[in-house]
Amino acid sequence: MGKGGYAVGEVYSIQPLVNNRQPIEKPPFTIGTLRKAIPQHCFKRSLLTSSAYLAANLAAVALLYVCSTAIDTLPTWARLISWPLYWFCQGAVCTGVWVIAHECGHQAFSESQLVNDAVGLVLHSCLLVPYYSWKHSHRRHHSNTGNAAKDEVFVPDVRPVDHEEMSFRTLGPVRLLEILFVLTAGWPLYLLFNMSGREYESWANHFSPYSPIYSRRERSEILISDIALGLAFAGLSWLGSTFGWLWLLKVYVAPYLVVNAWLVCITLLQHTHPALPHYSDTEWDWLRGALSTVDRSYGPLDVVFHHIADTHVAHHLFSTLPHYHAQEATRALIPVLGKYYMHDSRSVPRAIWEDRQACRWVAPDKDTPGSGVFWFKQFKEQKKSD
After folding, report:
1. Domain Fatty acid desaturase: where (predicted)?
2. In the beta sheet, which residues pair with residue 343?
3. Mean pLDDT throughout 353-374?
């Protein structure tokens, strides 16, 4: 039981593929009400505390690397086990580093924007992420969450209310291949081609200062991101030529791919769920959009991921809230949010398997075709058969 007498897995849990949609009525609370419900110390951003978490992350990265230097001295059978184990662990820890860099983009690392941007630029560049480019597009995602026309990522296609589709993509093996493709190639394709993002009149990507994603005043920072990435690639090329490309593949590239997979998995499941609504541009408002996300637990990895997944609702409401206060803030918010709070108790593999099938496009309900509220079509069909 949590504070306020709620049970996350019971009262406020989303049950998989049943009629338990998030309410679409305007909430009986305001963002000011929600802010007052959270202890004020939760909004304090401490450079010392944030740096301590970062130092722990980097120490874990270094320790795992040191351990990896002994793997090739092991028998063949042990190497076949130890290398994938290293990739998984290092990828998970580096995902935690990614989350801290993400907090820098939200100005949640410290009170200083200069410190936030300097730390975020270094960390994200080391993970081959264009810091400023993603910071600005991600800010627009937070400003337009749930808007079917203006959101920046995982924007579903809006189909007519009577649209039907029979597709080979519903077959299990095809669905599995799609999931593997999204987890491995989804992140670079989003950066390069804005895949799964909103439509723009011209080619949108995260590397051109003239990309339609960005305003004129942001162009210089996009260029800074590109230069930082160029330096990161140069450093990796030097490491590969010095220590061997196979060494670089095993030590850096494989964990890097694991980071990308976790990043896509976490963000996909946060915003693609059969119980979450999407809104037309005329129907949408910021608060209901911010609530159109879902918390879920990754078990012990929640600590490694700095609770980016199990406190995501609070993050969308208050993005400058540091991760080390997010659990306390979530506990304070849930009694106020009531039925507007979304928590999915399914396992991660089950959720990504089921939602890849259920969440292919959105459409209005047949009884409210002009409401401007859209739901995943497959979810509605599933409910009829339950």
Report:
1. 82-343
2. 13, 295
3. 87
